Amino acid sequence: MADQALKPEQLLQIDYRPPQKDWRDPKVEFRKGVFCYSALAKNLEYLGLPNPRKWQPHDEDWKLPSNWKEIILEGMRERLEKYRSFRLFMDICVRCGACADKCHFYLGSGDPKNMPVLRAELIRSVYRRYFTPAGRLFPNLAAARELTVDVLKEWFYYFYQCTECRRCSVFCPYGIDTAEVTMIGRELLNLVGCNINWVLEPAANCFRTGNHLGVQPHGFKDSIDFAVDELAEITGVRVEAPIMKKGAEVLLVVPSADYFGTPHYYSLLGYLMILHEIGLDYTLSAFVSEGGNFGLFNSHEMIKRLNAKMYAEAKRLKVKWILGAECGHMWRVLHQYMDTMNGPADFLEVPLSPITGTRFENARSTKMIHICEFTADLIYHKKLKLDPSRNDHWNVTFHDSCNPSRAMGLLEEPRYILRNVCNQFHDMPENTIREQTFCCGSGSGLGTDENLEMRLRGGFPRANAVKYVRDKHGVNLLACICAIDKAVLPPLLEYWVPGVDVAGVHELVGNALVMKGEKERPTDLRGTPLKMKEAAAHA
Amino acid sequence: MNALSSLVLAVILAALAYMGGQIDGLRLLFGVIVPYAAILIFLGGLCYQVILWAQTPVPFRITTTSGQQKSLPWIKAGWLESPWTTLGVIARMTLEVLLFRSLFRNTRADLRARSRLVYGEEKFLWLAALAFHWSFLTIFLRHLRFFMEPVPAFTNALAMLDGFFQIGAPVLYGTDVIIVLGLGYLLWRRLGDPQVRYVSLFADYFPLFLLLGLVLSGILMRYFTRIDAMAVKQLAMGLVTFSPVVPKEATPLLFMHLFLLSVLVAYFPFSKLMHMAGVFLSPTRNLANNNRMVRHINPWNAPVKVHTYEEWEEEFRDKIEAAGLPLERK
Questions:
Q1: Concatenated DSSP letters of B136-196
Q2: A222 vs B contacts (CB less than 8 Å)
Q3: Mutate which of A9, A92, A228, A367 to disrupt the B interface (most B C-beta within 10 Å)?
Q4: Counting beta carbons within 10 angstroms of the beta carbon of residue B224, is it exposed (0 to 12), middle (13 to 18) or buried (19 or more)?
């Protein structure tokens, strides 16, 4: 925890009353703790992006190209012609304000420009000035703004204070999606070299090595081998985890955090255990050693560039279909972008579970299914032997991650799994789960330490709902299916709701899974003694 | 400030027509020329904007899912909130357009004791919006009695229904009351809710004042100054049959009413009022959540620079080999 000085009570001195100053005034203060550092020049250079240089958002001079204004306006024109969403969302908002208090950043900061309506107005006002007759003729009446350096800075500040979680779009009577506005806003900033490093470094790494962390092939192999060894120690069963095995039936794609960070790692163990237990013929790949796609937080073009490897590798390895692990934004890309961008996947087959015989017709075009769909199907057909009492030290709630819920509708599968692998499960209040779920506050590339205050603020509504079930039902574990969640929720919950841990759904599956030939397992996958935990819980 | 300037503008416009209606030379302008011009601008602008939207591609299928996806057969899928068929999308859109489904979800967040966020029901915005829009539609349809001869049966039936309680003479229409209440609430909310007032622009108040002026002038004519309905019909029929006449019984209030309507329809295509057409085209609502079932085509799917497997293998050849992983090109 970086900024221990800031107490929760202090952070909650939130004033929701709008300030005196008119919102059209673009001045923002880049205060420590509420913004992300700029992308390093080397990352821009590696990806071939414009205007690589040394700069920081709090600098007075952003070293923009001299024709930056033309570049941005031309970029806007191009995108207005390419995206109906963008044009429409610029035109039809009535500013009813239904979205205002739906944003976690607004709820946590009280900054009116974090109301989705105003976040979009930041760019809409420029749209009106340059692209509508009313704005050209009567800029004042039409609330049309000149594009100035201050406006550009304001865009940077607020478009990197939006996690593209789409909660507001659920409530908007016209379905206006701020994520779409933010994505376009970031694309425009990208045109003049205004990026953040927490997005572009992973993107550059991923482009080069195949994963966000920059793990090279031998490192990938080591990590997987390590997991196999550790599993043998915990369970007494030595599983196989083939890498780049040609002709395997299934390609398994995991987010890189799964083999590099905790608690993600325990979910990886869970996948390896299940796939071994059912005897699925699958392979991992060091080339596609990342399911996530930070391109989503940079530009549509970058999504496609980073995603291209997935189908290419499936084709090269001659697998039949692809299985994707627990990761939120990864699944937005896989569900809503991959097939359109890099399909058709006509060289693959409709995913078919060889164990249950289920044909996943819902993925008949992309040929890729979510591991929760796969596991839920296994459990439903009673193909897994489960002992939920091995999770009795956990009292579990489920956090729907933004993208699987609002860009996919994956709501019941993980809950079905959880109800089968643990005995104590309690959902958070209705307004904070499923399609109304709250973001962790660090998604879309904002999960960096220098941005901690804003992350804590943005994560407050989520944490507050966790607190409710902790206090009411004694919940001590939040399960989720998103790699970013798993990385950022532990410090968030430690700050707002001490006493609640974070785990992937498949970690709990791994705990409960009774494997053939396993030895007595005195601990869970984390190495926590089961009995001791149980005794502690009863005490 | 925005509220005041739009009110001033609306009042000036209303006054202009009210006075103009009393000057012989201007009666033709306000009674015929302006309405024709307004309707032309409306139709032209509306078509232009809708065609522009429709011609702009939808590169990605970015449905906002508000319910369970269609996946495994034994999991109940949200056919309405996460539709995967065209029929489901039509149902979702119908609820959205006719009943403002998404707005119905609205809640109000409240930070209690600086520590606890609670979410309360907040249905008034939805109710007022629904009351306004449906009343407006009903009133619009009722007005067809001025523009059609013979008067269509459904218009008469609607008027009967609207005046169901038979209060007063002329009979009080329920929608006349409801629309004033609806508009009144929407205006009051815009001014009274600090957040909404902060985001409100001139363009948000102006149509509200135009509508209020339109509605109030209509109410005045019907219930208080008792306009000669035949004169109104004469004017209206003249306009729709392209043989315009301005009857001498036409009162200044009628000119005001007609002019405010003209301004509203002429303003319509250039304003946020276009949400009426735009809602049908919103890609987060009008697309099925069948992304993995049916491939969505992006008409401009441009090629991009990628890092191929071959390039990757070349760059990491030694490491792949040392790790004992298979190489494509030995």
A1: HHHHHHHTHHHH-SSPPHHHHHHHHHHTTT--TTTTPPHHHHHHHHHHHHHHHHHHHSHHH
A2: 323
A3: A92
A4: exposed
Name residue, tokens 């149902």. Answer: B91
Residue of A12, A82, A88, A315 best to disrupt the B interface, most CBs of B under 10 A: A88
| Domain termination site, one of A133, A159, A194 | A194
A347 touching chain B per CB within 8 A: no
Give the span between the Cα atoms of A217 and A334, in whole angstroms.
Answer: 23
A282: CB partners within 8 A, 6+ apart: A242, A248, A249, A250, A251, A252, A275, A319, A323
Within 8 A of B78 by CB-CB distance, chain A residues are 409
**A503–chain B Cβ distance below 8 A for any pair:** no
Model pLDDT, residue A531: 64
Q: How far from the centroid of its chain's Cα atoms is residue A290's Cα?
A: 13
Q: Nearest CB to B56: which of A81, A217, A376?
A: A81
The residue behind tokens 């880049």 is A30
What is the Cα–Cα distance from B300 to A300, expressed in whole angstroms? 12
Coil, helix or strand for B111? strand
ipTM: 0.96
Contacts of A258 (CB under 8 A, 6+ apart): A264, A265, A267, A268, A271, A325, A326, A483
The reply to whether CATH 1.10.3720.10 applies to domain B2-302 is no
Whole-number pLDDT of residue A211? 96
Q: Identify residue A89 by its one-letter amino acid code.
A: F
- CB under 8 Å to B291, separation ≥6 — which residues? A335, A336, A339, A366, B61, B63
The strand pairing partners of A284, in sequence order, are A243
Q: How far apart are CA A425 and CA A70, in angstroms?
A: 55
pLDDT tens digits, one per residue of B264-322: 999 999 999 999 999 999 999 999 999 999 999 999 999 999 999 999 999 999 999 99
The per-residue pLDDT of chain B, averaged, comes to 95
One-letter amino acid at B47 equals C
Q: Do A430 and A478 fall within a single domain?
A: yes
Going by C-alpha positions, the residue among A441, A439, A445 that lies closest to residue A38 is A445
Contact B289 A409 (CB under 8 A): yes
**CB of A232 within 8 A of CB of A272?**
no
Q: Are residues A316 and A410 in the same domain?
A: yes
Task: Give the residue among A535, A305, A312, A274 at the shortest CA–CA distance from A420.
Answer: A274
Which residue in the set A83, A97, A363 is minimally distant from B193, CB to CB?
A97
Q: What token pair was written down for A298?
A: 């940079």
A178, A309: one domain: no
For the cut 90, the answer to whether the pLDDT of residue A167 exceeds it is yes
Q: Which residue of A49, A84, A137, A181 to mutate against B (max B Cβ within 10 Å)?
A: A84
> What H or E segment, with its residue span, contains residue B48?
helix B34-55
Half-sphere exposure of A187 (CA within 13 A, CB side): 23
Contact between A174 and B298 using a beta-carbon 8 Å cutoff: no
Domain residues for the domain of A113 are: 8-30+50-194
